Amino acid sequence: xxxxVGALADSPWIxxxxxxxxxxxxxxxxxxSGVLVIMAATAAAAGCGATGDDxxxxxxxxxxxxxxxxxxxxxxxxxxxxxxxxxGDRLDRAIARSRRLTTxxxxxxxxxxxxxxxxxxxARFAPAGRxxxxxxxxxxxxxxxxxxxxSALAGLSWATYSVALGYFGAQWLGATWLxxxxxxxxxxxxxxxxxxxxRRGPGAGAGAASGVG
Length: 213
What we know:
Elements: H1 2-8, H2 13-24, H3 33-48, H4 62-85, H5 88-96, H6 99-113, H7 118-125, H8 129-139, H9 144-173, H10 177-200, H11 204-212
Helix pairs in contact: 2-3, 2-4, 3-9, 3-10, 4-8, 4-9, 6-8, 6-11, 7-8, 7-9, 7-10, 8-11, 9-10, 10-11
């Protein structure tokens, strides 16, 4: 897979692949979008370091990958948010049947109203947290101006961290499976820390983490 992503890194299609993966994983959290971003950044870092005949005709920029992943993340968040806002009574009833989701909905709404949207940033790193937060914010009919800035900050933070992992992994360990594996473990570790902080944090943390777990 690393070789396949490395081959795609020689063409602008790498941006399409990264963008589609990040956008869609809000609906399908099983998609390995974070792994893909890391692998693309690793391949890009290797391309940037190539010389002579090894220089690719096209080499994606790390900034381009970061902006692509950030934009796709925000668009995906907004798409699920809008769908949840239009879900109506059926979605409200589905959430009401789950005490965890109901508690998460109440605490997220309170956090956003108080400007405590750092919860949205934490959730971006937690497993399925992005999906749960976007769904709950939409179902709670939160204003888009309360949600969008935090979604953008969350997407930028996650994309920057993921691309940095791929880049520094390639710099320190080369464009190898070892570098990718270590970087992915660091991304998973960040998700674990985010989940812990959401469970242990004051106010907004505990209930929201239940909804994203």
